[in-house]
Structure formats: C-alpha cells, structure tokens
Design a protein that fits this description.
With 98 residues, this protein is mostly helical. The protein has one domain: EF-hand (Recoverin, domain 1), CATH 1.10.238.10. 58% of the residues lie in helices and 4% in strands. It has six helices and two strands, in the order H-E-H-H-E-H-H-H. The protein has helices spanning 2-7, 19-29, 34-44, 54-64, 74-87, 89-92, and strands at residues 17-18, 51-52. A two-stranded antiparallel sheet has the order 1-2. It is globular. The protein starts with a helix and ends in a 6-residue tail after the last helix.
C-alpha cells in the first residue's frame, strides 16, 4: 500500500523517488504544501540517502507501527501524523494566508 502510494511520485520510473520528483509532484497537486513537502521528504527518507525506495518504505512503515505488531492501525497512523503536523506546523500553517 505505502509503496504503491510512492510510485506516483517516481516520475522517471527508476524505482526511487528523488527530492525533486517528490516536491514537484506535491507542488503541482497541492501548491500550498511546497515547504511542508520538503519536511515530509526528510521524514520519509529514513535511510538519509536522498532517495526514497523500498528500504525507506519498509522502515517508514515500521515507524508508523507504534506497537510493533506488524500492522499499522488507523489509530497509529493518525497519532503519527498528528505528531508530525504539530512538529512542522510552522511549515504548513493553518491554511490562512494574508
């Protein structure tokens, strides 16, 4: 599921998602999240090698799996994202500009 989600960002189809591919996709589909996209990419890039691939997907899934039972529940998913949004609030604001 997670890997399928990331495939849409892989513009050149090489099986890895570069920061440029990811931020271009996000900025094109949701321009107001441009700055936040960089923070998300950093969070997704678990290995820190500047490319998202199956190793990052597996390790990211493990980050979401708080109770380490091999599955990510809706509660674990929501809890992780709430914490991430709170930690990066300065990048995405409240949706009000001007």
């Amino acid at each position: 599921e997670l890997e399928q989600e990331f495939k849409k960002y892989d513009a050149d189809g090489d099986g890895r998602v570069s920061r440029h591919e990811y931020t271009t996709y996000v900025t094109t589909t949701t321009p107001e999240l441009h700055d936040f996209a960089h923070a998300l990419y950093d969070d997704y890039d678990v290995t820190g090698d500047h490319h998202l691939d199956h190793v990052d997907y597996d390790q990211y899934y493990a980050k979401l799996d708080a109770d380490v039972d091999g599955s990510v529940t809706r509660a674990e998913f929501v809890d992780y994202w709430v914490k991430l949004f709170q930690a990066t609030e300065h990048l995405h604001g409240h949706g009000h500009h001007g």
